[in-house]
């Protein structure tokens, strides 16, 4: 008997600042506290069934309202439509296919299912660029390309030089919702499995490090996300939020080389550093800062020069 392939997720993490998200607070101000329960239930349906979308039909609204004491199906539909208008879900997909999804939801789905043999998005529902679909599914089995159904077999080279992922319509409370906990678990697990016995020198990320390539030739060290995941902060008693720093650097699509420089210059995410103020500004900018890595580097470099 063939085993049924699971599509949805068993759980999704939620950020501690979920209720402070601007769109969520606007919804609460307009529709009341019931918004929180409705949004959480929507996300549960999204991640548990198909894993990255849910069909928003009349039965869906009735199901959502069944557990509410003071809201009916029409109230729930109105709140969900407002959530779409405020950018919590993709408006185009909602109008064209009557589904609730978003770029952040689809990123989270692919990240959470990266170790599955098959993790595909329906081409009609896919909101991600080809570069984001090309990450390896399982590091222990070699690199493979994750893609939408119907894509060609052409492989895509993804490096920090030719691809910069810039979050669009980033809302810190929602799908940092689904990023933080799982990313932290992955970072901790990889740190245990692949300890970095000889950390790179201090000046990497600030100036060029040459490596032997043939006869008397060198090139800039190319840092990968795997290199970053193997780093561990020193045990010197300084109060840090290193895991949170890594989560935010990935969330804003910062390249591994810039990540390394920011990690070292911020003393591995020491609490109270300039980098945390910069992260807050990035969250509030709604994607208007197009080079988040350089922006954060300018802050930590300025702070360092004034010390």
From TrEMBL:
Domain called Lin1244/Lin1753-like N-terminal: residue spans: 11-105
Family annotation (InterPro entries): Lin1244/Lin1753-like_N (IPR025400)
Origin: domain of life: Bacteria
Pfam families with a match to the protein in the record: Lin1244_N
Sequence segments annotated as region (Disordered): 199-224
Protein name: Lin1244/Lin1753-like N-terminal domain-containing protein
Organism: Bacteroides faecichinchillae
């Amino acid at each position: 008997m063939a085993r049924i392939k699971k599509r949805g997720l068993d759980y999704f993490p939620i950020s501690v600042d979920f209720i402070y998200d601007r769109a969520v607070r606007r919804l609460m101000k307009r529709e009341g506290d019931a918004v929180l329960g409705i949004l959480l239930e929507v996300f549960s349906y999204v991640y548990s069934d198909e894993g990255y979308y849910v069909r928003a039909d009349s039965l869906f609204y009735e199901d959502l309202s069944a557990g509410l004491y003071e809201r009916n199906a029409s109230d729930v539909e109105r709140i969900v439509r407002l959530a779409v208008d405020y950018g919590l879900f993709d408006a185009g997909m909602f109008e064209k296919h009557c589904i609730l999804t978003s770029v952040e939801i689809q990123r989270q789905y692919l990240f959470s299912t990266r170790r599955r043999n098959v993790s595909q998005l329906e081409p009609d529902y896919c909101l991600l660029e080809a570069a984001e679909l090309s990450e390896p599914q399982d590091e222990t089995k070699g690199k493979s390309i994750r893609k939408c159904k119907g894509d060609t077999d052409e492989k895509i080279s993804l490096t920090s030089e030719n691809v910069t992922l810039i979050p669009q319509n980033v809302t810190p409370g929602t799908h940092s919702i689904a990023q933080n906990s799982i990313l932290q678990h992955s970072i901790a697990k990889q740190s245990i499995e692949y300890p970095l016995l000889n950390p790179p020198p201090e000046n990497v990320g600030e100036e060029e490090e040459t490596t032997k390539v043939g006869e008397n030739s060198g090139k800039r060290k190319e840092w990968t996300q795997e290199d970053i995941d193997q780093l561990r902060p020193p045990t010197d008693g300084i109060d840090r939020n290193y895991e949170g720093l890594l989560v935010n650097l990935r969330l804003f699509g910062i390249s591994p080389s810039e990540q390394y420089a920011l990690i070292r210059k911020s003393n591995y995410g020491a609490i109270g550093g300039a980098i945390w103020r910069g992260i807050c500004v990035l969250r509030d900018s709604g994607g208007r800062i197009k080079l988040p890595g350089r922006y954060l580097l300018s802050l930590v470099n300025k702070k360092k020069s004034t010390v």
